Amino acid sequence: MAPEDHQVILHQYDVSPYVRKVKIVLAIKRIDWRACTQPVIAPKPDLVALTGGYRKIPVLQIGADIYCDSDLIIRELDRRYPDPPLHTGTDKAILFALSPWFAALLTETAVPLIFSDGRSVDPAFARDRDQVMGRPYVDIPGWKAAAPRAAEALRAQLDWIDRMLADRRSWLGGDTPGLLDAFAFPNIGFMRDMGIDIALIDAFPRITAWEERVCNLGEGGRSEISTAEAVEIASRATPLTGGDVAPNEPNGLKAGDRVVVRAVDYGQDPVEGILISASAQHATIQRMDERAGLISAHFPRFGFQIDRHA
Ligand SMILES: N[C@@H](CCC(=O)N[C@@H](CS)C(=O)NCC(=O)O)C(=O)O
Known about the structure:
- By secondary structure, the protein is of the alpha/beta class.
- The chain folds into 2 domains: about 5-85 and about 220-310, 3-Layer(aba) Sandwich (Glutaredoxin), CATH 3.40.30; about 90-215, Glutathione S-transferase Yfyf (Class Pi), Chain A, domain 2.
- It is about 40% helix and about 20% strand.
- It has 10 helices and 10 strands.
- The chain has helices spanning about 15-30, 45-50, 70-80, 90-115, 125-135, 140-165, 180-195, 200, 205-215, 225-235; strands at about 10, 30-35, 60, 65-70, 220-225, 260-265, 270-280, 280-290, 295-300, 305-310.
- The chain has a 10-stranded mixed sheet, with helices on both faces.
- Helix 2 (about 45-50) runs parallel beside helix 10 (about 225-235), helix 4 (about 90-115) crosses helix 6 (about 140-165) and helix 4 (about 90-115) packs parallel to helix 7 (about 180-195).
- The longest helix is centred in the middle third of the chain and has 25 residues, at about 140-165.
- The protein is globular and about 55 Å long.
- The site of glutathione (GSH) has 14 residues, from helix 1 and helix 3.
- Glutathione binds near residues 40, 55, 56, 58 and 132.
């Protein structure tokens, strides 16, 4: 096992498709990691002690460095563990640009299909998710009404995936598993886990064979860790320092500015801290937490906004 401030800790819960996306990368790279299972609904005190307020899952922790959002997590894992690479010949940047499309497969197709079969939703879960989305979200009649359209949209998107496999390649990007597999699989796996009538997917035998290959990758070297232990590890570690704020920050932010970072879509809980480094693809802020000590929290730029603290 790596020294504790190098251990890869993934704050997660197993049902999450975004977590599954990261686990595929952990598996491809055969990384030993600690699964820190967080509650599915708020409050999540040990998670927000680390993030400063961000409550979504997954979050990667390495010592006192906290990486929020699955795409940023994957880039960081790829930076620290470059072998095997996650892409085969295709430009990685364009693959990350596709990530939001694969994620939309969840909200626009998987959710209506899953909840149109008459299953019930725990009222506490529904209240929590309404709050996360900032609007009434859990809407079984609405999802039921949307299901026929979702089925059409799902089939069209599965057909794109199927065509990628038409030349008998094993993985979406070629001969070895990589980013496209990690992006495309999670929502399909989620629908299967939720036990929906899956005839639509089974109509694509190349996809079902590919799903089996992805499942066989496993999830890397997993062992469990408690949420309290993860906070303690952060409190004993020192965050990575260094970096700088790259020129051409769109809104003139500078190193040392007190800023507030939040997701632009949902789960917009603000995280406040001092900007220490930033680029087109990341922003790092430092903050002091009562329990976790000095933390560097890292966020992607696409899908997040940063404002100078008022
Ligand atoms: N853009 C985020 C989305 C993550 C996300 O929406 N995760 C869901 C779980 S699948 C979540 O955190 N829901 C609210 C919660 O658990 O508090 C990412 O890529 O990591």
